[in-house]
Amino acid sequence: MSFTAPPSPPNSSTHASPVLILFLENGGRAGGVNLPPWASQALDRLTQAYARTAVWLQARRHYDRIVVLEEEQATAAQLWQALLDAGEATVDLLLLVHGQPGYACGHGDNQVGADFFAGLRQLRAAGLAPFRLRAVYQMNCYGQSLADEWLSLGAQAVNGSVGVNWLPEPSLSLFLRGWLGGRPFEQAVQSSYRAASRTLGLVWRPQAGRAGVQQPHDKIASSRMMVFGDGDLRREKRAAEFP
After folding, report:
1. Which of 46, 159, 192, 214 is surrounded by the fewest CB atoms within 10 Å?
2. Count of alpha carbons within 13 Å of 212, Cβ hemisphere only?
3. Domain-by-domain residue ranges, the chain?
4. Could you give the 3-state DSSP secondary structure of residue 140?
5. Grouped pLDDT means (10 residues each) for the chain, 243 residues
6. Where are the alpha helices (DSSP H) in 18-104?
């Protein structure tokens, strides 16, 4: 599924024709809790509808095309094809999925992992995958384990949590507000993490560490975001955004 934004003026360059790919799959899982099938299905639909709507409302003015890969389309093969279909366009990628060390989880736990990256690297080396990967925002757990892989595909900036990510929201919405508003990538990522930590920290209170020093709750610490590549990267405005 894809949405097309208002066209840019005829003289806009390929670099100014950005595409946003939204790779979206919840799978009806919540923090490792075993939910009954009806609750899992409801959670899957509600969370994906919320994420899709939140992204569309904030991003629709900033991209020429938004490609949504969810449910059966949220697979490594479909993501591969979406990147190739982007041609020479600049691509930003949002991975709103679960993850494990070394891979992100698509539909039915389809893995975006080592084979996916190795295959695309081969195509790029042969000049058959000319997309320009700009920013990759990862919500998946253990996202830092994929940072080097995305950078190897030409990504300019990537984020990733150090462990299990317990702060998907409000992190996503706050990141989009900052990134789409012109903030540098790292600033948008870290400010959204800090704000989410403060909010969820009201529930997951700091814990006593060594010598009685207060430490962040394990879930807050596990969700800490790292940024790789060019943290000062800013999103280039489309020509249609200028007054």
Report:
1. 214
2. 0
3. 2-165+225-234
4. coil
5. 42 60 78 53 70 91 95 96 97 97 96 98 96 98 98 98 94 96 97 95 80 84 97 80 53
6. 37-59, 76-85
